[in-house]
Amino acid sequence: MLSQHTGAACRPLVREGNLVQAGQKIGDSDAYVSAPVHSPVDGKVKEISLQSHAVLGRCLAIVIEASQYNLTKHPLRELKDDFDVNRYSPEQICSAIREAGIVGMGGAGFPTRVKIETNPQFPKETMIVNGCECEPYITCDYRIMLEWSKQIIAGVDLARKASGCSKVFIGIEDNKPGAIEAIDAALRAHADSEDIKVASLKTKYPQGGERQLIKAILKKNVPTGGIPPMIGVVVLNVATAAAIAEAVIYGTALTHRVVTISGEAIAHPGNYYVAIGTPVEDLLEFCGGVTQKSAKVVLGGPMMGIAIADLQTPITKTTNAITVLTKEQIGRAKFTRRQTACIRCGRCLEACPEHLNPTKIAHAVKNNLLDVAQSYYISACIECGSCSYVCPANIELTGHIKTGKIFLARQKKKMPG
Amino acid sequence: MLKDLRVSCAPHISGPLSTRTVMIDVIIGLVPVMAAAGYYFRIHALTLILACCLSAVATEWLCNLIRKKPNSVDDFSAVVTGIILALSLPPGLPIWAAVIGSCFAIAIGKMVFGGLGANVFNPAMAGRAFLTACFGVLMTTWTVPATINPAMPRISVENKIDARTQATPLALSKQAIKTRSQADVVNNQLSAMFTGNIGGCLGETSAIALLAGGLYLLIRRIISVHIPLAVLISAFVFASVGYLKNPEAYISPLAHLTGGGMLLCVFFIATDPVTSPLTVKGKWIFGAGVGAITILIRIIGEYPEGVMYAVLLMNAVTPLIDRLCTPIPAGGRPHVS
């Protein structure tokens, strides 16, 4: 996949028939907001063609046939004892992050270098590390925090240095006491860790949303339509932090990640360290296959994930989970259960973490009144799905709002300025 | 490996609530009220509730048929409307009148607007207002409860004079206001008003049953606390003003809260989600308006009871309240760009 991040897509650096090595850069772009991609395996480039992509639909991809040897990459190496953050300059850290192709691994996939590099327009003060995996089923970040806590702290320290932040908070939900303990222990072992604090947060959905996390820890709201740097905050996922440590210390590219493969229909659910680019079908097979009852394969969690139609769709840098849902489960969800008219109960307003009026926005979009939708602040929606989840009338509120946002984006494109 | 994969928009799972479960919970909340009505008004309660429910459901079914819309009676909202309408009727009302009211409530109060969720006015109150306009005498003749006089003849146009009736607390209150004396007659009836052993509409006499049902709805989070609290507070404040000014002419605020349809309105009528505002701020305004208008009608207006008109009036301004109270996003209003 040559576009696994927010920003410009890469162009391929290899040709059909070329031999590639694990960790070799195979796609890159000159654009600032972009991140290169690397081959996770040794092998031969079979073709460069359009392939199914979970978010974009179709996307140019380099298909590599793996050679039989050297298929596995060892998960993150143990840190050497003599790790010292002072050995690296901010510039070194940033370029290592960029070369390793690291992007936000929590979901949006914003290139990490762009995020943490100092920017005179928005000086950064606080870094928040996101260990709040709030979607049901997903536990990959939890596992990472348990097993790679030292690497996470090292990555956080490096990122802090590169970004110039003075304070760091690691936000973890209070239903993961094990993770809080592990990170705490790693912090104690780490030199000069006074400025890094663990924040235990209430377990709720969507606590792991960037804006919700900042609100919970700093009691500050990110302006509507704005981004965290505007209030001096950088948010990094724990998996990203671990990847930063690996990239800076060992120069390893981001070619593998931890993915939660679960759901009621999976024979052997678990967290797996997989090569980025592996087709979903292979992973499901590896996990013992799925039962007959399965009906929906979702990349991500059940609240915000994307249901895929093509099982050849590969894992990307931002895929944190594959969730396979059964017929019964989705039978309870939208489309299959009868929808009634909105009874104006106001539950969606109560559930909305951004304090919007989802039912009004959805109705406006349905009636093609985009200006009305805007007057109810449609663009402030974070698409967390809470409104659809609670709706007793079974209305696809989130779906309508997403549709409205797409229409608005198209409108904007047509009329520049 | 996998066939028949389904694709749809996130979220892929959904909460346990449906419109039907919400309506069923409301019906469960109404059970204590119906039980109290059954205890005090016996056969009248049974026949009126049954007649209203059946005609409400039948009307909705028929309207769907005429409009060639999918059948919607299985969401049970028509049943709720039927029960609430029945509970707001005088116990001795002839069945045919109740059926007319119920048909009006569903057909004109709800279905002409487009059915569930689209109606401006609370259907049950619209039906009741229609009956009040058509059958003024029948709608203000109150049978005494069976616990006081087991005879309880049904009122009809011919024998309305003979029917054993009793002045309701609110009628006495109106009298007290006019004569400027004897308001304490009502205040002394407070315990009867609490249990329900007194004349009045089918479901409004027993405060304790209404409180039990309301509590159930609050605990199940079918209704939020804002509207009930707002109505009670504003009614209490307005009633207190009168009481403090002249306790001889104006009944005590507590009597206002337990008397008439106040509690039925507080928990079951004003809280109708369709016809009340969406936002918390709007709910406070709505509730305060209902409470204030009710008491103003009761102590200044010509009618002894004002709940129905208060609810209908506030229903009418609900869209305006909603527009007034557009919630501001968590991150503040976006800057104009």
Give a short summary of the structure.
Chain A is of the alpha/beta class and 417 residues long. Chain A folds into four domains: 11-66, Beta Barrel (OB fold (Dihydrolipoamide Acetyltransferase, E2P)); 85-250, 3-Layer(aba) Sandwich (Rossmann fold), CATH 3.40.50; 256-331, Ubiquitin-like (UB roll) (Roll); 347-414, no CATH class.
Give structural attributes.
heterodimer, A: alpha/beta, OB fold (Dihydrolipoamide Acetyltransferase, E2P), Rossmann fold, Ubiquitin-like (UB roll), five-stranded mixed beta sheet, four-stranded parallel beta sheet, 14 helices, 15 strands, B: 337 residues, 2 domains, 13 helices, 0% strand
Task: Provide the fold topology.
The complex is a heterodimer of chains A (417) and B (337).
Chain A: E1 11-12, E2 19-20, E3 25-28, E4 37-38, E5 43-53, E6 57-66, H1 90-99, H2 112-116, E7 126-131, H3 140-147, H4 149-163, E8 167-173, H5 177-189, E9 196-201, H6 210-218, E10 233-237, H7 238-250, E11 256-262, E12 270-275, H8 280-286, E13 294-299, E14 306-307, E15 321-326, H9 327-331, H10 347-351, H11 358-366, H12 370-375, H13 386-390, H14 397-414
Parallel strand pairs in A: 7-8, 7-10, 8-9, 11-15
Antiparallel strand pairs in A: 1-3, 2-5, 3-4, 5-6, 11-12, 13-14, 13-15
Chain B: H1 19-67, H2 77-87, H3 95-107, H4 123-134, H5 169-179, H6 184-187, H7 190-195, H8 207-219, H9 226-245, H10 253-258, H11 262-269, H12 280-299, H13 307-324
Please give a structural write-up.
The complex is a heterodimer of chains A (417) and B (337). By secondary structure, chain A is an alpha/beta fold. Chain A has four domains: 11-66, OB fold (Dihydrolipoamide Acetyltransferase, E2P) (Beta Barrel), CATH 2.40.50; 85-250, NADH-ubiquinone oxidoreductase 51kDa subunit (Rossmann fold); 256-331, Ubiquitin-like (UB roll) (Roll); 347-414, no CATH class. Chain A is built from 14 helices and 15 strands. In chain A, the strands form four sheets. In chain A, strands 12-11-15-13-14 form a five-stranded mixed beta sheet, with helices on both faces. In chain A, helix 3 runs parallel beside helix 5 (177-189), helix 4 crosses helix 5 and helix 4 (149-163) crosses helix 7. Chain A is globular, with a radius of gyration of 21 Å. The model of chain A has no long low-confidence stretch (mean pLDDT 87). With 337 residues, chain B is mostly helical. Chain B folds into two domains: 19-138, no CATH class; 168-324, no CATH class. Helix content of chain B is 57%, strand content 0%. Mean pLDDT of chain B is 89; it is low at 159-163. Chains A and B meet through helix 8, strand 13, strand 14, helix 10 and helix 13 of A and helix 1 of B.
